[in-house]
């Protein structure tokens, strides 16, 4: 009998995943990951790990499976939180959940699971895995979850074939209401518990307060760029179906501004703490429509904003990924330099898939979308799909 270590988080998804594994005849052991101890920046009354471990214990007891707590906080601090601070210092907005999966849940946790005699690891992610034989080798396909409203494949966009080799996703073929129903029928403590939010294993935080552990606050100007600003990049003369090298570069460049291009509306606490598309936290009122961050200048410590969701500064047709930040979940399908292919793309979780073309070049990859995209954000991950299958991803550089 194969032993499976389930990452029991204290949520309903991993709880039902553990039950399904038992039903399938596996020898199941539950491991709760303790990855964060600090409470700096946590919103008042929100210390999720204290409650999570209690709920996880209750579920393990109900299902009659062994339960252990594994402390991975040292590795989490170095690999995830360290990366988080580093990226914000560069003026980029990282996705800690993607990093947490790549560096912790499917790496450090998998190694810890082996020490408990586990042959396989499982999580409560809404995604699916299929395996096939290609040219005599086993190849794993990472597929979107059956529940399109809960599909979490995007968060796994940095996993490797090696990491997928010994992984199970028991709830990937279920709809969320079905998972809730199973939990309720079993009278699991997590049956009606709300889904977790906030930074993976940290919880809901006041981000500026959290980041000020490492990044110093510094007042700077908030400058509004009008919607009729004449310096917005235009792309009318570029053939999007077959762009040359210069066109690819021009298409992928973000809009740029100078302080003299707009007017000062107020002050902020540090450009590092703001991200493109952000609406809350500007503390400026009296406008006909909401203000959104359209750019940040880390060197001059300036935050540029525009009024309304349709402000031209929020929209771009393309992005660029550096060569060393391109990742192929399916290396056998990787494009070679100077090749291109059409895919469906996602640049943030829960975003509907977008049509476009991926161009690979010696210096990296360009994604040209069929329609302009709102809020392309450096530091976030762009993921590309072929139908249901997640093929690759990369960190947005510009």
- Please work out how many helical segments DSSP would assign: 8
Query: Portion of residues in helices?
Result: 10-25%
CATH homologous superfamily identity of the largest domain: HUPs
Low-confidence region ranges:
none
Percentage of residues in DSSP E strands: 25-35%
Structure, described:
A hairpin with a 2-residue loop joins strand 5 (127-134) and strand 6 (137-144). The relative contact order is 0.13. 23% of the residues lie in helices and 28% in strands. It is built from 8 helices and 18 strands. It folds into 3 domains: 3-210, Rossmann fold; 214-237 and 255-312, Roll (SH3 type barrels), CATH 2.30.30.280; 315-395, Elongation Factor Tu (Ef-tu), domain 3 (Beta Barrel). It is of the alpha/beta class and 398 residues long.
Short description:
This protein has helices at residues 12-23, 48-63, 73-89, 96-114, 161-164, 176-185, 207-211, 245-252; strands at 3-7, 27-34, 67-71, 120-122, 127-134, 137-144, 167-168, 220-224, 263-268, 291-297, 302-307, 315-322, 326-328, 340-346, 354-361, 364-374, 381-386, 389-395. By secondary structure, the protein is α/β, with parallel strands linked by helices.
